[in-house]
């Protein structure tokens, strides 16, 4: 199994159960939206998926590698875009990428080549020489996605990557990442925005730490995913 699997993950923050038996699978090359309202447990789950902390129960595999038993192999196959931006504003777009490539141990010429390939993929090649500080929010996000692809991961995780962006930038980034999935990348995209989910996407609805729906978005939502999402997440408030 080369995508992402999450099996029976639990997590408590003190007396509060933040994740309760969370299980789902994202097949290789699929875009999966992890949709949940505020406080659903999305960021807690991302903490587990990126090994910021370990789940007490359950199992995570990335491209077939068990996160507990083979953490280096699992993490090496994963690219991550966190909610908070982590770019150096004083460096150019390309320098930011080269810096990150060096952290991955990529030699200079290979890093240069890959930086231009990933910037091209995200429609950012012409901005390679601009300072990160000069980019608008949407372009900064694209640059972070490009950076997360430098080491050629098989699985890309994005934690609410469109927060704070205008509608046009949101739409562009959502399209770019769907295109990456169409090209074979496995994507887990956490969001609370129903309009970022497409009919053919895989969809996991998370609420109060539990998976309430898991399947193809079109089948879960019928002709109105917003209404379905609100109904599902209202039932337990
Ligand atoms: N470090 C922490 N300590 C204690 N409780 C926490 C901590 N982080 C999250 N929680 C609680 O765990 C639950 C899940 O929060 P989490 O941030 O994972 O949800 P989320 O779906 O990412 O929400 P949002 O969309 O608001 O970021 C919430 O009840 C939250 O208050």
Automatic annotation (TrEMBL):
<protein>
    <submittedName>
        <fullName>ATP-binding cassette domain-containing protein</fullName>
    </submittedName>
</protein>
<dbReference type="InterPro" id="IPR050763">
    <property type="entry name" value="ABC_transporter_ATP-binding"/>
</dbReference>
<keyword id="KW-0547">Nucleotide-binding</keyword>
<dbReference type="Pfam" id="PF00005">
    <property type="entry name" value="ABC_tran"/>
</dbReference>
<dbReference type="InterPro" id="IPR003593">
    <property type="entry name" value="AAA+_ATPase"/>
</dbReference>
<keyword id="KW-0536">Nodulation</keyword>
<feature type="domain" description="ABC transporter">
    <location>
        <begin position="4"/>
        <end position="233"/>
    </location>
</feature>
<dbReference type="InterPro" id="IPR027417">
    <property type="entry name" value="P-loop_NTPase"/>
</dbReference>
<keyword id="KW-0067">ATP-binding</keyword>
<dbReference type="GO" id="GO:0005524">
    <property type="term" value="F:ATP binding"/>
</dbReference>
<dbReference type="InterPro" id="IPR022467">
    <property type="entry name" value="ABC_transprt_ATP-bd_su_PQQ"/>
</dbReference>
<comment type="similarity">
    <text>Belongs to the ABC transporter superfamily.</text>
</comment>
<dbReference type="GO" id="GO:0016887">
    <property type="term" value="F:ATP hydrolysis activity"/>
</dbReference>
<dbReference type="InterPro" id="IPR003439">
    <property type="entry name" value="ABC_transporter-like_ATP-bd"/>
</dbReference>
<keyword id="KW-0813">Transport</keyword>
């Amino acid at each position: 199994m080369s995508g992402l699997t999450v099996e029976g993950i639990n997590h408590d923050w003190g007396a509060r159960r933040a994740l309760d038996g969370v299980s789902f699978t994202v097949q290789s090359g699929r875009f999966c939206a992890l949709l949940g309202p505020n406080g659903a447990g999305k960021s807690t789950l991302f903490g587990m998926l990126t090994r910021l902390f370990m789940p007490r129960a359950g199992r995570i595999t990335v491209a077939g590698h068990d996160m507990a038993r083979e953490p280096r192999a699992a993490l090496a196959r994963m690219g991550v875009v966190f909610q908070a931006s982590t770019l150096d504003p004083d460096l150019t777009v390309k320098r930011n990428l080269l810096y990150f490539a060096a952290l991955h141990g990529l030699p200079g010429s290979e890093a240069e080549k890959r930086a231009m390939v990933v910037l091209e993929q995200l429609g950012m090649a012409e901005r390679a020489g601009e300072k990160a500080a000069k980019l608008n929010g949407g372009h900064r996000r694209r640059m972070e996605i490009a950076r997360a692809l430098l080491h050629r991961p098989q699985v890309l995780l994005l934690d609410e990557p469109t927060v704070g962006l205008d509608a046009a930038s949101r739409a562009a980034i959502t399209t770019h990442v769907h295109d990456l999935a169409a090209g074979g990348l496995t994507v887990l995209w956490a969001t609370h925005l129903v309009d970022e989910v497409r009919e053919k996407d895989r969809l996991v609805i998370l609420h109060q730490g539990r998976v309430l729906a898991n399947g193809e978005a079109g089948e879960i939502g019928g002709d109105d995913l917003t209404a379905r999402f609100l109904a599902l997440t209202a039932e337990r408030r």
